[in-house]
Amino acid sequence: MSVVSRQDAADAATGARDAGGGDALRLSDIHMTFRSRGRRRREVVAVDGVSVSVGRGEIVGLVGESGSGKSTLGRVMAGLQVPDSGTVTIDGTAYQGRRGITPGFHGAVQMVFQSPAASLNPKMTIRSILGYAARRAGVPRDGVGSAVSAALEEVGVTPPDRFLGRFPHELSGGQQQRVALARALLHRPAYLVADEPTSALDVSVRVQIIKLIREIQAHHRMGILFITHDLSVVRALAQRALVMYRGDIVEEGDIDDVFARPQHEYTRRLLGSTPQLVPPQDAA
Ligand SMILES: Nc1ncnc2c1ncn2[C@@H]1O[C@H](COP(=O)(O)OP(=O)(O)OP(=O)(O)O)[C@@H](O)[C@H]1O
């Protein structure tokens, strides 16, 4: 991707919604098709012309069945996947193509994943994992130690000294996910894409991580795209919901409206089949 403008032409062209006022992370008319090589060439349209936005200070829940394109959309939003076409606009700066995925893009948008164990290098200590992230985020060498400790404090991995020398496998799943969040926070991102960050965790730990994400979001006025299969988590956390089905956003609205008056048949089916694992009051 390369920076092509500092105006909102892409948004005007596609009508992407800016729910958070001026500052927003917007995707405009994103297309992504995966093509397999070999004799039996197959094409999978993962994202089929999607325009969405996440405002600063807003949590948007993205739900949909397996294979509907949620993770692909999230990776595009975080600059980890270059789409076939479409524009990513971060606070008014539009990015297109491979060369636009710059350190500035990654600094502005960070991502956390379902499996913290897989996203943390097993051969590195927590000190090295976070120290490396701090250096990449531009923290001067003599400030790395205190930045790492502050990040661990912020995510509740305390006292930091007790954890710095450990390897990821010496932490619980919840602690690993907290470290993954600390790594993201070291970049002071304006936006976070959280791809099923709680689904690999026990239910009680899940609630704690949801609370932590909400605290972090409020403290930094961050915009978050929260991807999940679990509608009850979206209800507990998000102000707005996007429902994805076969590569397209089929429903978008304020959380209460989507739950009370689902418009799309797929959303109605999804609501009908979702147990309430995290009632809103428990996650508050
Ligand atoms: N790197 C890839 N190569 C080929 N096909 C891919 C690739 N990544 C995703 N796909 C395909 O694109 C479609 C959308 O995948 P994606 O992972 O975005 O969906 P999802 O909604 O996140 O699913 P899940 O909830 O199971 O993670 C699927 O059919 C998937 O198999």
From TrEMBL:
Entry annotated with the keyword Nucleotide-binding: yes
UniProt family annotation: Belongs to the ABC transporter superfamily.
Keywords: ATP-binding, Nucleotide-binding, Transport
Name of the molecule in the record: ABC transporter ATP-binding protein
GO molecular function term, any single one: ATP hydrolysis activity
CDD domains: ABC_NikE_OppD_transporters
Residue stretches making up the ABC transporter domain: 25-271
Any GO BP: peptide transport
UniProt key word Nucleotide-binding: yes
SMART domains documented for this protein: AAA
Domain of life: Bacteria
A Pfam cross-reference name: oligo_HPY
